């Protein structure tokens, strides 16, 4: 036989690196998954023979396009836009759109790859995709954002569809931007369909979609703590970020009787030793979302609190850590500090916030550590429920949706236990999530043959 189907892990990763030069985030995401999948498929010939992992790590397609728009001063601005359609073996491509200056093809490929496993874990029929642009919404007027969204959709519309690819929000894209993009999609195609999720309630959106990612990350945390007959009540939590995910994670921690002592943004973190109460969270939501302000201003509004410029909050002693900002915001040394300070559980609200070194530290310390693809899946899960409601032309009640979100997070936790229980009271949630997500997508791919 000329070609061996069994490439070993190192050869596989060398190939991924060679084929994706200058794409470190994508390589990192693939490696984190491959570390677990290689052990799982060691004795499963068919996955090797059909090159399943190699195929999942090669996006179905990457669409790159120019986005031109006119700023308020009349200057013509040019940005790059992308849609990465990673895998649609188990449903239409699904995943958010990110507008942030750090967006590159590598970042979107890693996010679309992660999304493939995350969406499989929800149990809903959704494939994996992601899109976005290096457009920086910070400091732009609402009209500028509208014009950018319209221009972005003028290309994107031909690649998406309710049964093809259903984008949503992510960093820099919230309800307002989804509105502008939905309006433009409808204007071009004359179709009112569930082509985007995260829509407003008046025009096909779902209740609790806004809260779902943050709440879901805390439900997952509760499920993890329950394996040790413990709970959030009375625990001190350190949270990074101050956007939609962070503020709703904080809200749920407070509702469950925990104490949140930090929030952050790209300029630094605030420390509030008395605890960030619901009133304070409401202030942050209004300040960050509506006024587009800095988290630093929290200290002027609430005396007795401190701002730490240029720092992340992982040095503040805590029981629980919830990284809810962005990728690679929690590095190996931060993980070592958290472990040394006695942190017992980490639930990721962001996508890949912990770097590979940090992941290895958490695994070695055997603490309760949930990777984002498991713990932050609540957002896309409610997006999936929004799609169902749109298809059925109906709307479920808040109580029904809350229960469905809780059930889905409990289901993901159970899947992680199935594949990640290492015995002796330790669950490797990274391994559990990777294998459960992979298996579902892989088995669907096997059914389709070589396509
Ligand atoms: N951007 C979110 C995520 O990372 C949500 C995606 C969606 O709702 O499609 O999962």
Provide a descriptive summary of the structure in words:
The chain has 451 residues and is an alpha/beta fold. It has helices spanning 9-19, 24-41, 45-49, 52-56, 105-121, 142-156, 175-189, 209-226, 244-255, 278-290, 298-301, 332-340, 356-365, 372-375, 378-391, 398-420, 429-448, and strands spanning 61-70, 76-87, 93-99, 128-133, 165-168, 236-240, 259-265, 268-271, 306-309, 320-323, 345-347, 368-370. A seven-stranded mixed sheet has the order 9-8-7-6-10-11-12, sandwiched between helices. The mean pLDDT is 97. It binds glutamic acid. Residues 94-96, 168, 170, 197, 351, 379-380, 383 line the site of glutamic acid.
Strand residues, percent: 15-25%
| Percent range of helical residues | 40-55%
CATH architecture field of the largest domain = 3-Layer(aba) Sandwich
Number of strands: 12
**CATH top level label of the largest domain:** Alpha Beta
Main β-sheet, in a few words? 7 strands, mixed
Strands across the major sheet, in which order? 9-8-7-6-10-11-12
Contiguous uncertain segments of 5+ residues: none
What class would the helix/strand composition place it in?
alpha/beta
In short:
With 451 residues, the protein is of the alpha/beta class.
